[in-house]
Amino acid sequence: MKKRSAKSLLVHRQSFFELYDKTAVKRTAIFLKITNRNSSFQINIFLLFLFVLNTLQGLAQSDLSVQYSKQISPDSAYSTIRILTSDSLEGRETGKPGQKRAAHYIKNRFSHLNLNPGIFGTYEQFHPITLRSCETCNIEVNQQFFLFMKDFYYPSFFTDTMLVIDSVSFIGYGITDPSYDDCKNNDITGKAVIILDGEPKSKKGKYIITKSKHASEWSTDWKRKVEFINEKKPRIVFVITDTIEAMADSFNYSNKPNAFEVSCRQPNAIPWVYITNDLAQKFFPETMEPELNKALRKISRGKKSVNISSSTSAIVKLSAETDKMRGQNMIGYIEGTEKKNESVFITAHYDHLGIRDSLLHPGADDNASGTSAVMELARVFQQAAADGHRPLRNIYFMLVSGEEKGLLGSKYFVKRPPVPLNEIVVDLNIDMIGRTDPKHDSLNDPNYVYIIGSNKLSTELHEISERVNDSITKLHLDYEYNKPGDPNRFYFRSDHYNFAKNNIPVIFYFNGTHADYHQTGDTADKINTKLLARRARLVFLTAWEVANRKERIRVDRPMPKE
Fold this sequence. Notes:
The protein has 562 residues and is of the alpha/beta class. 37% of the residues lie in helices and 21% in strands.
């Protein structure tokens, strides 16, 4: 008998099952005929026949995924890594020429693979980034340093500021209104003032000023509060806000500066700084913490505000000088056959640190390794589609920039996704899968991968990952960093987290840190390409099952608190 190639056998088997599906009407007719003959024996034989065929069809699908997963090439992945870590790409810092060249390379690869453009007819989703040096923008309070974008945000339309502060005053929400007044007996001229963002509510959740569930313009128009407070001529205003990121986004993604913002750039403009509650507390001595907490409780219940003043020691250095640049998310996809309103995302960030202190940081493991894996998965899934094995659901391949600057690319993506977020079934995120860490080196256990987040939102996703690995890839799945309270907080530190925050199940694939993490020694020659390919196979097989299963995986667990 003539020996068939593996590929021809797959095609032959697929043709058989296509024929099986086309004869559904005939099978039904036979079943009705048997039923009419009232032969339970014949019915049972027929049902057994259907069961066997369905089982074989499932095995064939499993067989297909395994065969295609073997096409993931260590050599092809290494070729991609060599290009991404070359000197000409200058470490791929987001917004810099090297990152632009990397994006151009990815665009050409996606085009060569004939992936559908993932962003309204193009592969590129541009996102804004605002850079400021932490050396010129920081706050020191009582000998503790606080950082821009982590502990505070300073809008770029204010002027550069350098202040030494020896006292502060907390005056509630900073509102003067007929029904609520924080400033009636407070002279804040020349003072450093701390206020709360927003406005007070009653115990029943209604706003004190409007006496309804709708906020007044003291909350909806931030300029009103700025203009009112500035009339009282304080020296600087600190605003306590719940989320620094959200406040920064509201300014970063706003339209062109208006006349009010232009006025804030004048040399005598009063600076406004948005700070966390933790930073606000540091302006006061620890002995005043009970008094502050009592005041905050009173204010939150809509009761009369109080003025709390204290001596302090603070140095405030605020830089409004920014480099406004753009990063690029690169997105291509394969269209599904049946469930076109559901999508599987496979992601990795392709940016790195660039050149620092005149030294190139190539970022081979972080994250040229993950980028190369996404490229390989795109290539193999597209080959399967060309062979007639297109997935039921869409599969998106997204390479993200801005990860090293605070998950900026993925954060922008979930604010402006090309598909509704509720149609995204899962995000499988790959960030560093080309090396081993000291823990597993000491155990002589290189055949591992850290799995993070698989069970955080979906029990089914975790079970699929485990089942695929147990039956096929047989890696050691290490869940050390998946434990609640992990001090490294890796679950919150890569692009999958912006998906998870939107109730989308995720898995983060990771090899752990090593001596070359974020160092100049993270070079291509240290990548274990065979290990990288084995880890990528696990991602491929998991994606294949999630993309082709009859039912969408369920979200059955609450989002973990950050």
